[in-house]
């Protein structure tokens, strides 16, 4: 007997799925509750690595997330050691978001994995899909950046403030602009 994939399994694998699925609605509500509780806490360097965030995201080391922070699910976010997300970061994590060690993400940066169909009838029918995002090790992303679905940013790269990353950025690159373009190598 063939087992059909759940909407959650389809979502995480990047297939078309229905975001109105009751299980997904409950999981987004859980993430929202945790983020709301975290964001209401008074900020200091000690509580940035709160146990609340460890209930939400996957990590294997110390990390810092300055509130407010927002995400869709949390369980699709994988943060390695010594990562810092500055104030007002948003991660729409319908697919995996992997952030390598020693990465710094500037304030008001948004990382999107969620995609909507270009076909109007599919948008009306609650059909979505996603593409994963991977950010390498020792990356610096300036403030007010937007990282679009399906993008990989290579190790040791720098993304200039205000950039919109629409395509992959190779290792050791400095990229700026809208859309972000590689301006030089960071060797």
TrEMBL record:
<dbReference type="Pfam" id="PF12464">
    <property type="entry name" value="Mac"/>
</dbReference>
<protein>
    <submittedName>
        <fullName>Sugar O-acetyltransferase</fullName>
        <ecNumber>2.3.1.-</ecNumber>
    </submittedName>
</protein>
<feature type="domain" description="Maltose/galactoside acetyltransferase">
    <location>
        <begin position="8"/>
        <end position="62"/>
    </location>
</feature>
<dbReference type="InterPro" id="IPR051159">
    <property type="entry name" value="Hexapeptide_acetyltransf"/>
</dbReference>
<dbReference type="Pfam" id="PF00132">
    <property type="entry name" value="Hexapep"/>
</dbReference>
<dbReference type="InterPro" id="IPR024688">
    <property type="entry name" value="Mac_dom"/>
</dbReference>
<dbReference type="GO" id="GO:0016746">
    <property type="term" value="F:acyltransferase activity"/>
</dbReference>
<keyword id="KW-0808">Transferase</keyword>
<comment type="similarity">
    <text>Belongs to the transferase hexapeptide repeat family.</text>
</comment>
<keyword id="KW-0012">Acyltransferase</keyword>
<dbReference type="InterPro" id="IPR011004">
    <property type="entry name" value="Trimer_LpxA-like_sf"/>
</dbReference>
<dbReference type="InterPro" id="IPR001451">
    <property type="entry name" value="Hexapep"/>
</dbReference>
């Amino acid at each position: 007997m063939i087992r059909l994939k759940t909407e959650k399994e389809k979502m995480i694998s990047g297939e078309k799925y229905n975001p109105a699925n009751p299980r997904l609605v409950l999981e987004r509500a859980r993430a929202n509750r945790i983020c709301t509780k975290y964001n209401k806490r008074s900020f200091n360097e000690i509580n940035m690595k709160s146990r609340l965030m460890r209930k939400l995201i996957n990590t294997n080391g110390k990390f810092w997330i300055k509130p407010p922070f927002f995400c869709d699910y949390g369980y699709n976010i994988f943060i390695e050691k010594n990562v810092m997300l500055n104030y007002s970061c948003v991660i729409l994590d319908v697919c995996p978001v992997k952030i390598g060690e020693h990465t710094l993400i500037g304030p008001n940066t948004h990382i999107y994995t969620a995609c909507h169909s270009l076909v109007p009838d599919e948008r009306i029918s609650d059909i979505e899909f996603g593409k994963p995002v991977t950010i390498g090790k020792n990356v610096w992303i300036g403030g007010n950046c937007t990282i679009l679905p399906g993008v990989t940013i290579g190790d040791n790269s720098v993304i200039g403030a205000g950039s919109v990353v629409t395509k992959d950025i190779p290792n050791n690159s400095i990229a700026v602009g809208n859309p972000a373009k590689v301006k030089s190598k960071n060797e």
